[in-house]
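Query structure, 169 tokens:
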């Protein structure tokens, strides 16, 4: 049984086996969580991302998929990069969002990670409403069979934390 915990804070400060990055498909850094992880993790993460782009992901990492790199200077062994979908009014893309969590947990299992820190994937600049992002995240993690012992949702502000807390109740 996977324990789900919530933390209000900075995902780059977490001491876990794997930190999940809400990446963009280029894998080359960006804003929000992605930029913070690349800045704090240092150049080793970007170097491995460039290698992935040069080999397996020439057109970028597809939405809903996940891939791992070193965690560089983070207090983790790996960063699992996943590309969340942009929220589009009138189009249900929640299966793509759920896939981000399932695929990240699959990669974590392949790596042997037992503790994984997730941000609220797609709930930042990709515009996913926090209430629905939290629902998809919590339901998907609960429904996914994994050897991960702790999934930690690391929420940047009090509002996001409270929204996830409601979903856990």
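Result returned for the query:
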């Amino acid at each position: 049984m996977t324990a789900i915990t919530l933390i209000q804070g900075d995902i780059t400060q977490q001491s876990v086996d794997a930190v999940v990055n809400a990446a963009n498909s280029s894998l080359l850094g960006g804003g929000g969580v992605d930029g913070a992880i690349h800045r704090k993790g240092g150049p080793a993460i970007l170097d491995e991302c460039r290698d992935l782009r040069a080999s397996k992901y020439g057109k970028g990492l597809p939405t809903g998929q996940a891939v791992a790199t070193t965690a560089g200077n983070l207090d983790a062994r790996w960063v699992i990069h996943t590309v969340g979908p942009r929220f589009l009014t009138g189009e249900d893309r929640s299966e793509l969002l759920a896939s981000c969590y399932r695929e990240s947990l699959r990669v974590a299992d392949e790596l042997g990670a037992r503790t994984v820190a997730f941000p609220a994937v797609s709930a930042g600049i990709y515009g996913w409403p926090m209430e629905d992002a939290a629902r998809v995240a919590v339901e998907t993690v609960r429904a996914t069979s994994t050897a991960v012992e702790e999934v930690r949702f690391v929420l940047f502000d009090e509002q996001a934390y409270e929204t996830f807390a409601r979903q856990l109740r």
